[in-house]
């Protein structure tokens, strides 16, 4: 979960930095003629609503609309502040089109750095767990980038799980509804090679400072990480040694200021920490590696 400064993985993000390196998403076939002249009017309406990338958003809304009435409805929703991804029903992430339903956390472009780090540690046939999965974007990206993975995903939010199932099922993945590890099948204990946990890490006091698109339209449990932003992370790390395979890796995002405490949390759990940053993407990823030999009491 990104902090309040995180660039979103919006369907309409115009390439402006390395954070937008995947560029605009692929277009659908040309829109029927009745919408051919709608671009200027749509752009004007979006600009009036304060949309920064009005031209790109207009193109995507026109492509998504079934006709003039549907386009007008979609423009009205966007102008009201509903995230573009919720209006069109998808977000671009790691080169994939990820289904995103209203209320579900929108994957951020910075989280592609977590995917990159996980892919570097992964292998063909790995067991992958996407915890606090939201839409399942991270798991889907890992299953696409690694061959033959066994993919599992879990989230406490029922709407997110329904969405994740649509994104991971075509890749052979399974999504579970429940609190962290609780809904997972016991056969996964000690077998997870890559555990990607995009936990909420915004401190409670800073949630009201998030952009309105996040605080008003995404589930609070996907944003609020407790007093210091690390409450959920502590629970994930505490359980990780029982689920990680020997040599397996837990990966998660934090802010730079949280990374030092996150490292301490990993060490107390017996995991070997490493911190990686990408200044262009404003991303910090912390990795905790399990010992290559299983420690007593972790079964």
From TrEMBL:
Q: Which InterPro entries match?
A: HemK-like (IPR004556), MeTrfrase_put (IPR022446), N5-glutamine_MTase (IPR050320), SAM-dependent_MTases_sf (IPR029063), Small_mtfrase_dom (IPR007848)
Region of interest (Disordered), ranges: 1-37
A Pfam match? MTS
Major enzyme class: transferase
Q: Which UniProt keywords apply?
A: Methyltransferase, S-adenosyl-L-methionine, Transferase
The superkingdom of the source organism is Bacteria
Q: What is this protein called?
A: peptide chain release factor N(5)-glutamine methyltransferase
> Organism source for this protein?
Actinacidiphila polyblastidii
What is the organism lineage in this UniProt record? Bacteria, Bacillati, Actinomycetota, Actinomycetes, Kitasatosporales
